[in-house]
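Quick start: read one record
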Amino acid sequence: MAIQDITEKTKHNDGMEKFHAQAHFWGRLTLGMVIILSILLPLYLSFVLGYHPGWGPIISAYVAYAMLMGLAWTMEPVLYYPTLGVSGTYLAFLTGNISNMCLPSAAAAQNAIGAEPGTKKGEITATLGIGAASLVNIMILIPIIFGGSYLLSILPESAQAMLQYILPAIFGGILGQFAIKKPLYAVIGITVALMITILPVGALENIFVSILLTVLICIFLDKKLVRDKNGKT
């Protein structure tokens, strides 16, 4: 029986290794293609059509944007990887709209079937959740692109004012899902986010710093609780 269990576990690990190898191959290929296509348009506008603004404005704009978003470039993959996994991370960065669509979709899918983030089951679930959300997003986005402006023009002002609360409502629902499991973490996350928002911290006022501080504090508390528990025993 033990030999059979070991064999099944080995097959499972080999399957995940092959899956990750395919994810790395197609993820790097598709992201590389997207990067090339993204660069081609400004190159075409600059050097073919002659709309190049000069290197001074380009460098200044890049430095300003890097100062604002540089932390996000570094921390987003690190902070989201435990939830998304290898394949989910590639798919999320290819799709875009990570914090507003991909991460909530992955978290909702994992919560629906009881998959823990950071596990193999959680990674597969997150990937399927992001894929489904992307397909639905495309299906909804196409008619909205063609008819969205008209729909917004006929909506009453009271209804248009409600649109700004859609995203906070989504994040509130996700917070509620995880707050039930870890109430202390929810209190810490809300407290850190309020401090980052209220205090005059300048460029630090963004979601990535809130996530980073919350994760570090929760890890510290977890380790402290483990030490205290071991000390008592």
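Helices lie at 2-48, 55-95, 98-113, 120-154, 157-162, 166-181, 183-198, 207-232.
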